[in-house]
Specification:
By secondary structure, this protein is of the alpha/beta class. Among the domains are: 8-141, Resolvase, N-terminal catalytic domain (Rossmann fold); 169-302, Putative Large Serine Recombinase, Chain B, Domain 2 (Hect, E3 ligase catalytic domain fold, Alpha-Beta Complex); 395-466. The protein is 46% helix and 15% strand. The chain has helices at residues 28-42, 63-73, 85-88, 92-105, 124-127, 129-156, 183-197, 202-211, 217-224, 239-246, 291-302, 346-351, 363-381, 384-388, 395-425, 431-462, 468-476, 483-489; strands at 8-15, 45-53, 79-82, 109-112, 117-118, 169-172, 175-181, 255-257, 260-262, 270-272, 279-281, 322-324, 331-335, 341-345, 360-362, 490-495, 501-505. The longest helix has 32 residues, at 431-462.
Amino acid sequence: MNDYQIYNTALYLRLSKEDELNGQSESINNQRDFLTKYVLEQGWNIAGVYIDDGYSGLNFDRPDFKRMLADIEKKKINLVITKDLSRLGRDYIDTGYYLERYFPTKKIRYIALNDGIDTTKDGGNNDISPFKAVINDMYAKDISKKTRAAFDIKRQNGQFIGGFAPYGYKKDPHNKNKLVIDEVAGEVVKRIYSLYFNGESMGSIAKCFNDENVLSPAKYKNKTTTYKSKISKWSLWTPETIRWILTNPTYIGNLTQKRQEKINYKLQKYRNVPSDEWIIVAGTHEALIDKKDFDFVQELLHKKILHYNMPEKAVHLLNGLVFCKDCGVKMTYKRDKQKRMCVFCSTYARHGATFCSNNLISEETLENYIFNELRKVAKKSLNEGFYEQFARVNFIETNNEEKDLIVRRLSEIKNIIISLYDDKIRGIIDEELFVGMSSKFNSEKSRLTGRLVQIESQMSKSANKFDYKDIIKKIANFEVIDRNILVKLINKVEVSKDKQIFITYNFCIPKLLSKNGVNTAS
């Protein structure tokens, strides 16, 4: 190359959000004016202006930079000029690649005007360009650290700093750092907890929502916010999405942030942060889920309950609670040759008799034994006096309370209408206002009268037929089996190679005699 060569010049302009903090001198317009004046003074052609406004210099995945490279490949450009080296990029490895390899290979002259870098000239500034690239990289790293620290302070102060609210919430229109409930998505979140609480697996919940065409969080965000992504239109519910929602304390009113973070300041890739490093601030917004329900779901997740899609039984009642007494590994389920469902040691199944015994027991035998033991506990711990407290609570009393409220309100409405009529006669209110107000109260009167008739009909049919005492007795005697109750009562069940069963409860009980020498004390 020589001083008389015709140069078709690319003006490359870049400004990231961080660079905006440096003031007006770094603006796109100022860069354009500065470079245009210089190029015209040199008598060179301007082949194109390439602008990446709002893009970080830490990577080269920028739309107009790619467009410039395409024009270089088409030989439309033979000179690239930037205001300084940092406009080209701040990552010293990739910046070095373009300076030392790509541009020379394509016979491209490169100028960083303010830094005095010109690849066609020998000089000190060219020699130290790698060091300038390293300094730019260090600057970007320092800015990243400061930005993270500032964000963490806001998080610790209970301010929401995300671009979009977590599924189930939306940003308060009057305060972008506060969350309010999204009524539509919030109901889906409540349903997720209810389904999992009642034994559904994360996979089955995801499948159910996909079958019902419930919008996934990504699709919902794409539809209801400024977020736009072509990929999200294919997004479906997955077990991972369900788990993400089930483990988020934000849903009990405790703002939870920093569940993910960038791997480093150069990559747009994220890693999951351990739960003990999350930033959680309690009581920042209205809860969607009751804390007791949330804690119970965490207990279920901690036990790593496995769910099986079987037509005859959706969930094994003792799943996640049964362990091998000999090796300590959680036992799992399979069918034997007689097609009976059995619980067996997974260590033996994987590695053979060298590592553990063939501990196997039928699910029916195990469940019957456990339920009988629980019935013994109930019989010993709960006397008749315990059940008597429920004898006075019945369906009729509940209806009586509602009936009394309706009767009182009907009496109030009657007096209000009489008072309105008196005011009309005295000329205090006109005919139009009287008709409008009396119509409103007559409508309420009609609705309440219909409900009163319905209640009286129910009471006549249900009198003395619904006693909670009997229901509580059935539950306590395990005539009605509830998996959630089992998980709350039992810490673990262990099965030995000689089929002895050992139960450890989550509560203290008097020692009970057991024919298999079972330890029933917690």
